[in-house]
């Protein structure tokens, strides 16, 4: 049987009852929540190791969620997902530029009237924000309309958002102010401390986000055009600029030379598999670029200490949750790629999430979490009654008991998706194996799954060219060997001792759900395929009793056309397959018994 996912969503939008139960806090008071959100910070190039103050004040007092993912590896779509709790295919904000993305698209989609700060205010919170909000939020459109839901705010604005020495900030209803010649992160820190004082003095629990642009590339200036291709021609990105006091640091730091660093053999799919190997000159430049990122993060490290110290001085640190994360990851020289993001590789989607707060244990967790889970987490902490409907994630467990239960029961998958181009940052363009130099990658649109189970770790993607990638990260953590069958004569690989040919139909069925899921079905996609509730993981779906069912499944994820944004008519099949229990070994699939 095939069911439209929109129908399935209507049948399954009930929110997990546990998600609406408030977490107990010191003295029964609602906690304060502080989010420090960096821009393009990597997890897989060790940038966290160069932040001793973050370690001292947050990591050493909280939980580091090692399997945290963004679902769209680019700034604006990822941030909209953060603050709405919805995947990009449900926000339709899929780019940094109009018409497919940016602040204007966020407004047109109606989210300025239905997003996290408004929900938190309805739960009794004062709300504060300083730093980068969204791309295409500019010195021209800052008040048309002004971002809603913030008790007080001080936003960085385009076209100067990424200019470390020429920032423009806009406070509350006041016009933008230029800070030419001053260091952006230092200005931001002072504004953050001021908003923190406002929160303390408000007499209410407060939510504060501090969003520096480090370690994003410096951009002079960010293009304001409404045409994505024209904008990419205008954009000029260079290495981030550190504060003067940090420019001497880490003189010997280089991009870690792991297995996928400038590999000898090409890999990946689509245009990525055509990349030429990086030259020694390019690698030297990339190392310099990497070092500048580490240096730029030092001002953020100081900001972390400044926030924690002020919370402690105010006597409220013990009733404050601190979340440290970023919008998306980053690659430099992995897979022969120049600095950038947008890819589905682990460097781009697996990102830092560290949480400190009441009852949060010290250590690491390997449960799977995603950016769609953060809005539900904030709502749960706030004891909110509004804002839950239609969210695509589930609250992150924050105590020992919750973490133990999550290891057994929590979902093991992440939906990953992208639309648009792959963009090189820095002075070098993409060099292809035929000698051609291109300013940006051809269409980079794909749908993907990241699945992390107790005995397996997989990445599966379908590109808009209908090419496929399948990586077994247990044996190939660098994602260098695409084990998707390319020909009938190739020797068959196994996963968990099962031939890939039997695993793939399960992954296809799962991806068919997640690529268009809404609400409950994003968290529990197996409940769509197996409504009896007896399958909750990939391993459960691999049971031999389902072999005939999955062998019969003909529909799989594919694209009718490569687009630069989310155009439903080009997204291929939209219907999920459903297994219906019969008598004995009978089963129902695709409408036939």
From TrEMBL:
Record PTM 3-oxoalanine (Cys), positions in chain: 75
Description of post-translational modifications: The conversion to 3-oxoalanine (also known as C-formylglycine, FGly), of a serine or cysteine residue in prokaryotes and of a cysteine residue in eukaryotes, is critical for catalytic activity.
Signal peptide range: 1-19
GO process annotations (BP): phenol-containing compound metabolic process
Keyword Hydrolase found: yes
InterPro entries: Alkaline_phosphatase_core_sf (IPR017850), Arylsulfatase (IPR012083), Sulfatase_CS (IPR024607), Sulfatase_N (IPR000917)
EC number, as in UniProt: 3.1.6.1
Class of the enzyme per the UniProt entry, highest EC level: hydrolase
CDD domains: G6S
A Pfam family: Sulfatase
SUPFAM superfamilies membership: Alkaline phosphatase-like
Stretches assigned to the Sulfatase N-terminal domain: 31-384
Origin superkingdom: Eukaryota
Keyword annotations of the record: Glycoprotein, Hydrolase, Signal
GO molecular function: arylsulfatase activity; glycosaminoglycan binding; N-acetylglucosamine-6-sulfatase activity
Catalytic activity: an aryl sulfate + H2O = a phenol + sulfate + H(+)
Family that this chain belongs to: Belongs to the sulfatase family.
Protein name as annotated: Arylsulfatase
Organism this protein belongs to: Hyaloscypha variabilis (strain UAMH 11265 / GT02V1 / F)
């Amino acid at each position: 049987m095939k069911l439209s996912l929109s129908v399935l969503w209507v049948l399954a939008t009930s929110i997990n009852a546990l998600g609406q139960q408030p977490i107990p806090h010191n003295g029964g008071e609602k906690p304060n929540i502080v989010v420090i959100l960096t821009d393009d910070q990597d997890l897989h190039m060790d940038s966290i190791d160069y932040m001793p103050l973050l370690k001292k004040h947050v990591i050493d007092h909280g939980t580091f969620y090692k399997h945290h993912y963004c679902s769209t590896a680019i700034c604006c779509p990822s941030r909209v997902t953060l603050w709405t709790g919805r995947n990009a295919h449900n926000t339709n904000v899929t780019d940094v530029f109009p018409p497919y993305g940016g602040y204007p698209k966020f407004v047109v989609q109606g989210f300025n009237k239905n997003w996290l700060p408004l929900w938190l205010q309805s739960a009794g919170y004062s709300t504060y924000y300083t730093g980068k909000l969204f791309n295409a939020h500019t010195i021209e459109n800052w008040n048309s309309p002004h971002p809603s839901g913030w008790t007080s705010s001080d936003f960085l604005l385009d076209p100067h958002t990424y200019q470390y020495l020429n920032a423009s900030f806009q406070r509350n209803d006041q016009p933008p102010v230029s800070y030419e010649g001053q260091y952006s992160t230092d200005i931001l820190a002072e504004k953050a401390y001021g908003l923190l004082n406002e929160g303390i003095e408000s007499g209410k629990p407060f939510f504060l986000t501090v969003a520096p642009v480090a370690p994003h590339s410096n951009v002079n200036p960010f293009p304001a055009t409404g045409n994505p291709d024209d904008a990419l021609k205008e954009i000029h990105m260079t290495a981030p600029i550190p504060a003067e006091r940090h420019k001497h640091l880490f003189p010997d730091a280089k991009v870690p030379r792991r297995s996928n660093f400038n590999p000898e053999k090409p890999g990946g799919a689509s245009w990525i598999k055509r990349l030429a190997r990086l030259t020694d000159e390019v690698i030297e430049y990339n190392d310099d670029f990497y070092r500048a990122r580490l240096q730029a993060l030092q001002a953020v490290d100081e900001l972390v200490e400044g926030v924690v110290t002020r919370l402690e001085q105010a006597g409220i640190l013990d009733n404050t949750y601190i979340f440290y994360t970023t919008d998306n990851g980053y690659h430099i020289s992995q897979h022969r790629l120049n600095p950038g993001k947008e890819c589905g590789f682990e460097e781009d989607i697996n990102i830092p999430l560290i949480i400190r707060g009441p009852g949060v244990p010290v250590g690491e967790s390997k449960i799977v979490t995603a950016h769609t889970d953060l809005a539900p987490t904030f709502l749960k902490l706030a004891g909110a009654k509004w804002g839950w409907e239609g969210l695509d994630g589930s609250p992150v467990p924050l105590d020992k008991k919750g973490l133990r239960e999550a290891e057994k029961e929590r979902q093991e998958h992440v939906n990953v998706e992208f639309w648009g181009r792959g963009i090189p940052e820095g002075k070098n363009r993409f060099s292809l194996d035929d000698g051609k130099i291109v300013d940006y990658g051809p269409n980079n649109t794909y749908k993907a799954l990241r699945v992390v189970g107790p005995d397996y770790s997989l990445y599966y993607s379908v590109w808009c060219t209908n090419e496929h990638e399948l990586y077994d990260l247990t044996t190939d953590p660098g994602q260098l060997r695409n084990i998707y069958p390319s020909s009938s004569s190739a020797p068959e690989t196994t996963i968990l001792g099962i031939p890939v040919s039997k695993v793939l139909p399960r992954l296809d069925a799962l991806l068919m759900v997640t690529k268009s899921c809404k609400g409950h079905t994003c968290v529990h996609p197996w409940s769509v395929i197996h409504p009896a509730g007896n399958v909750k993981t990939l391993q459960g779906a691999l049971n031999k009793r389902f072999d005939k069912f999955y062998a019969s499944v003909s529909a799989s994820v594919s694209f009718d056309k490569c687009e630069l944004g989310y155009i439903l008519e080009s997204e291929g099949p939209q219907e999920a397959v459903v297994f219906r229990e019969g008598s004995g070994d009978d089963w129902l699939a695709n409408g036939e018994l």
